[in-house]
Design brief:
It comes from Hypericibacter terrae. This protein is of the alpha/beta class. The protein is about 40% helix and about 20% strand.
């Protein structure tokens, strides 16, 4: 599973995005595209995408967004505006799929945290371009609990070895951390809310959250279901913000079952 690089033009720059295929030779198998969290990357997923794809017999496509992993870092002084998740869904993700050779396919999206929100926005704006989505600890509005958690993470980044640990997953940890942190802690972001867009989602949705999520309440996935009634909910006990780390077996079983049921229904 070799790391490859795609060249895309975005925001007035030429960017290199790292990506990796899993099980590319499984002709006809469902394709799952993995969308990482606000501090994630290909490396930060560790082996979970491979584990899920092996369990379901899926193909997988994993990539690092601009600013993360070994993809092009943010430009000097670049700050992400409150619409950065919309732009990732509507501009970067389609460009990456095209460059990686998956532009003509209808994938399943598997997104965690920020990646879950990107999956929701992609599904809302391009409802015919995917088969469905699994959104894990997504967010559709800003909660005070989340803001406090990010502020605590910023303090840890600047006073502990947190930065050194992030450097394991990013060639430029400051690019990854401050891109995410500064966007979420900006006053302009406090009113960010995509509730009205959720009603445009027509595809199957599985929304997952850990009961002990330190960044959000259950209103995040309950609110998604209120706007997109076809959503199935999975609330996992003894689980924090990252179910693929805290309860991977439960998440894998639920995801494989969800995709298989809907593939058979098609």
């Amino acid at each position: 599973m070799t790391i490859e690089f795609a060249e895309i033009a975005w925001d007035g720059r030429q960017l290199r995005l790292e990506y990796r295929w899993i099980g590319r030779g499984r002709d006809g198998a469902p394709l799952v595209v993995f969308l990482h969290e606000g501090l994630g990357s290909i490396a930060a997923w560790r082996d979970y995408p491979l584990t899920l794809c092996e369990a379901g017999g899926f193909r997988g496509l994993v990539y690092s967004r601009p600013g993360y992993g070994r993809s092009s870092p943010r430009a000097p002084g670049e700050r992400w505006a409150p619409d950065y998740l919309h732009r990732q869904a509507r501009e970067v993700l389609p460009a990456l799929l095209q460059a990686a050779g998956a532009g003509t396919e209808k994938p399943w999206l598997f997104g965690h945290s920020d990646g879950g929100t990107i999956a929701l926005l992609y599904a809302a704006s391009m409802p015919d371009a995917l088969k469905g989505a699994i959104v894990v600890a997504p967010h559709y509005f800003v909660e005070e609990k989340g803001v406090k958690g990010i502020a605590k993470a910023k303090l840890a980044y600047e006073t502990t070895d947190f930065r050194d640990r992030l450097s394991t997953y990013h060639v430029d940890p400051d690019s990854a951390f401050y891109g995410w942190c500064d966007a979420w802690l900006s006053p302009e972001f406090r009113d960010w809310n995509i509730e009205k867009e959720l009603g445009a989602i027509r595809c199957p949705l599985l929304a997952v959250q850990g009961i002990d999520d330190e960044y959000a309440t259950m209103q995040q996935i309950d609110g998604i279901k209120a706007q997109a009634p076809q959503t199935e909910l999975l609330k996992i006990p003894a689980c924090r913000h990252s179910p693929h780390r805290d309860q991977p077996e439960i998440l894998t079983r639920a995801t494989v079952d969800f995709i298989r049921r809907h593939e058979e229904g098609r």
